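Predict structure. Chain length: 113.
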Amino acid sequence: MKTTIITLLLFLSISINAQSQFQGTWQSETSSFKTIIIASEYAILKVFNYSFEENHYIEEDIIEQDDNKFITFLYNPINGYEVTINYYIKNNQLISSYNGDFNGTIILYKKFC
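Prediction complete.
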């Protein structure tokens, strides 16, 4: 019984912080846009992109998420661009795999202000 409780507490502590690893401002080397991810301990709450250089803001709709990854849908009304984006973290980098009007992978790095 004691082992079960300890195992459960360990699992909960890992799960509780799972989504917060995504939180922050992320930047790729290929775009002026920055990706902002707002997360609680339990869920990804909001994802959006902005560029001061292009004076543009785009929200992403969260489609699915678990402890290690999440999927969003992005629609840009200015040019009709639509993609689904699969996000996960590997080696302190945010890997974003795009499917739709662009197919490919972009690596984002956490910005520290």
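Summary: The chain is about 15% helix and 55% strand.
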